[in-house]
């Protein structure tokens, strides 16, 4: 990998195992407490190094102009920050639903940051890459850091935390939730009491976005109800996806089979180390 010209790397999804809103900053961003865990479901990003400095996306996503795609923005940001003269052709194999609360766009951005840092031989430390990532989105630093985490601030103050790694059933409702719409909703509660990790482990695992998302998106409400027949069903991030944990693969697959006639659904394993870090031998 030392002088590779092409890299194909995974961009894993995340789940928010709980999400508390405990305040709001002057710039409007919300102060959160959340637990991030990765799952073994990925987008795949291929990076072809160019010597002429051009940055191109070979696989534009429906509805996302090329210059707005987070992978393209990331490559430009790293090029500006380092002054490197290389460019890149980017290919995205999209498996993660957009606007699903699985962090797909943020994870794609983190994969481009770490991948180009190797391919362009810029060798920035993870700390600098996390700082750059935060300029792209509140969820990017955890993907750059590559460890499951207890997170505070706007999601960027990360403390390592290894929850159990169960099997999950994830239901993907046929709607996209815009994160900004949920965070600007008048009905959102913004002054909830902060909790400790011990409270989380004792079962305090609510998502404070859930009441607003359920009200605005009946599909999400129905998905929670269907999945809730099998296990405690939760919302990830601001949705739209909902998930539930199962102690073993057989239980998860049985629930998924029962749900799949009515829902788009997949089974994935919780992972406390990012597959991206494993692929780059950082883990
Ligand atoms: C809800 C989470 O998915 C939990 O993991 C994330 O905090 C969202 O992270 P993200 O998608 O990377 O969010 P960003 O792209 O930074 O922000 C999208 C919009 O959501 C709102 N936003 C986001 C994060 C946050 N802590 N407070 C906010 O108010 C802001 O209005 C922002 O304009
Ligand atoms: N490479 C990308 N992949 C996905 N979405 C992108 C990308 N680049 C830009 N976007 C834009 O970002 C929006 C949010 O995408 P994403 O899939 O990350 O949502 P999400 O899973 O709800 O994220 P989060 O959990 O971080 O809120 C998309 O609707 C799209 O307009």
From TrEMBL:
<dbReference type="Pfam" id="PF00288">
    <property type="entry name" value="GHMP_kinases_N"/>
</dbReference>
<dbReference type="InterPro" id="IPR004424">
    <property type="entry name" value="IspE"/>
</dbReference>
<dbReference type="InterPro" id="IPR006204">
    <property type="entry name" value="GHMP_kinase_N_dom"/>
</dbReference>
<feature type="domain" description="GHMP kinase N-terminal">
    <location>
        <begin position="70"/>
        <end position="146"/>
    </location>
</feature>
<feature type="active site">
    <location>
        <position position="139"/>
    </location>
</feature>
<dbReference type="Pfam" id="PF08544">
    <property type="entry name" value="GHMP_kinases_C"/>
</dbReference>
<dbReference type="InterPro" id="IPR014721">
    <property type="entry name" value="Ribsml_uS5_D2-typ_fold_subgr"/>
</dbReference>
<feature type="binding site">
    <location>
        <begin position="97"/>
        <end position="107"/>
    </location>
    <ligand>
        <name>ATP</name>
    </ligand>
</feature>
<feature type="domain" description="GHMP kinase C-terminal">
    <location>
        <begin position="203"/>
        <end position="263"/>
    </location>
</feature>
<dbReference type="InterPro" id="IPR036554">
    <property type="entry name" value="GHMP_kinase_C_sf"/>
</dbReference>
<keyword id="KW-0547">Nucleotide-binding</keyword>
<keyword id="KW-0808">Transferase</keyword>
<dbReference type="GO" id="GO:0050515">
    <property type="term" value="F:4-(cytidine 5'-diphospho)-2-C-methyl-D-erythritol kinase activity"/>
</dbReference>
<feature type="active site">
    <location>
        <position position="14"/>
    </location>
</feature>
<keyword id="KW-0414">Isoprene biosynthesis</keyword>
<comment type="function">
    <text>Catalyzes the phosphorylation of the position 2 hydroxy group of 4-diphosphocytidyl-2C-methyl-D-erythritol.</text>
</comment>
<protein>
    <recommendedName>
        <fullName>4-diphosphocytidyl-2-C-methyl-D-erythritol kinase</fullName>
        <ecNumber>2.7.1.148</ecNumber>
    </recommendedName>
</protein>
<dbReference type="InterPro" id="IPR020568">
    <property type="entry name" value="Ribosomal_Su5_D2-typ_SF"/>
</dbReference>
<keyword id="KW-0067">ATP-binding</keyword>
<comment type="similarity">
    <text>Belongs to the GHMP kinase family. IspE subfamily.</text>
</comment>
<dbReference type="InterPro" id="IPR013750">
    <property type="entry name" value="GHMP_kinase_C_dom"/>
</dbReference>
<keyword id="KW-0418">Kinase</keyword>
<comment type="pathway">
    <text>Isoprenoid biosynthesis; isopentenyl diphosphate biosynthesis via DXP pathway; isopentenyl diphosphate from 1-deoxy-D-xylulose 5-phosphate: step 3/6.</text>
</comment>
């Amino acid at each position: 990998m030392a002088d590779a010209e092409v890299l194909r790397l995974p961009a894993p999804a995340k789940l928010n195992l709980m999400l508390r809103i405990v305040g709001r900053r002057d710039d409007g961003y919300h102060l959160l407490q959340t637990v991030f865990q990765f799952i073994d479901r990925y987008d795949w990003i291929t990076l072809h190094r160019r010597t002429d400095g051009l940055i191109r996306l070979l696989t534009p996503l429906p509805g996302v102009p090329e210059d707005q795609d987070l992978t393209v923005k990331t490559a430009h940001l790293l090029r500006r920050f380092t002054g490197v003269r290389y460019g890149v052709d980017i290919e995205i194999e999209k498996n993660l639903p957009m606007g699903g609360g699985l962090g797909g766009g943020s994870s794609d951005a983190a994969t481009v940051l770490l991948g180009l840092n190797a391919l362009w031989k810029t060798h920035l430390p993870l700390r600098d890459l996390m700082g750059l990532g935060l300029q792209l989105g509140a969820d990017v630093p955890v993907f750059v850091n590559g460890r499951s985490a207890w997170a505070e601030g706007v999601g960027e103050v990360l403390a390592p935390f290894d929850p159990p790694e169960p099997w999950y059933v994830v239901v993907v409702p046929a709607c996209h939730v815009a994160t900004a719409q949920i965070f600007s909703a008048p009905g959102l509660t913004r002054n909830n009491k902060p909790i400790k990790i011990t409270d989380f482990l004792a079962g305090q695992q609510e998502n404070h976005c859930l009441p607003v998302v359920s009200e605005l998106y009946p599909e999400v409400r129905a998905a929670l109800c269907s999945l809730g027949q099998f296990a405690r069903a939760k919302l990830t991030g601001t949705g739209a996806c909902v998930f539930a944990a199962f102690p073993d693969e057989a239980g998860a697959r049985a629930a998924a089979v029962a749900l799949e006639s009515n829902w788009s659904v997949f089974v994935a394993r919780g992972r406390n180390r990012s597959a991206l870090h494993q692929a780059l031998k950082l883990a």
